[in-house]
Design brief:
Blueprint (H helix, E strand, L loop, with lengths): L1 H14 L17 E2 L18 E6 L2 E5 L15 E3 L5 E5 L4 E2 L9 E6 L8 E7 L7 E5 L8 E5 L6 E9 L2 E10 L1
Parallel strand pairs: 6-12
Antiparallel strand pairs: 1-9, 2-3, 4-5, 5-7, 7-10, 8-9, 8-11, 11-12
Length: 182
């Protein structure tokens, strides 16, 4: 019985399209707190997916348009995206440019697709200015969204600039650099 309910819910979600105004696309806001934790060292950038054009980004992470990796396409929005350095996470950007502070209408919505199974693990994000260690912004996004391995999020940074986001879910990890403007 539980399996039938889950299958029906997944089918209903799969038939709806994700758009900034749709109820299924509403983000789970993360908590923001100061921390003194240092982040891990960045790894080599991932190769661009075939057929994708790049746009302005920052650090090692260009903003891409075109074909995302195949594992990040189930019910995916057709939006610009970023690909993590290790190739384990794709972030679809509902807002461009991302804005520092607590912007509204629109907020900095990012829909994260992860390659590795998320299970019941929340996505933990530790962010800091690229090349720096402070300030550190800590965000957390629950694993309850579906279908697929996704995490809806609102990612707010306190200051403009290039920010490095270390993404962790369970034993999995990836890193992206995102540009925030005033």
């Amino acid at each position: 019985m539980t399996l039938l309910v889950c299958a029906a819910a997944a089918a209903a979600c799969a038939s709806s399209s994700l758009s900034p105004a749709s109820p299924g696309a509403s983000p789970h806001p993360g908590s923001v707190s100061a921390s003194t934790s240092a982040s891990t060292a960045p790894s080599a950038p991932a190769a661009a997916p075939a057929g994708s054009a790049t746009r302005e980004g920052c650090g090692d992470t260009p903003v891409r348009q075109g074909s995302p990796p195949a594992w990040a396409t189930v019910n995916a929005p057709v939006l610009p995206f970023v690909l993590g350095r290790e190739g384990n996470a794709v972030g679809y950007l509902f807002t461009e440019p991302l804005r520092a502070g607590k912007p509204q209408n629109p907020a900095n919505k990012i829909l994260w697709y992860v390659r590795e199974r998320r299970g019941e693990y929340s996505m933990r994000v530790l962010a800091h200015p690229r090349g720096g260690t402070r300030p550190v912004v800590e965000l957390s996004f629950p694993s309850g969204a579906g279908p697929g391995e996704i995490y809806p999020s609102i990612t707010e940074m306190p200051e403009p600039g290039c920010w490095t986001l270390d993404l962790t879910w369970g034993a999995n990890h990836d890193t992206v650099d995102l540009l925030y403007r005033r």
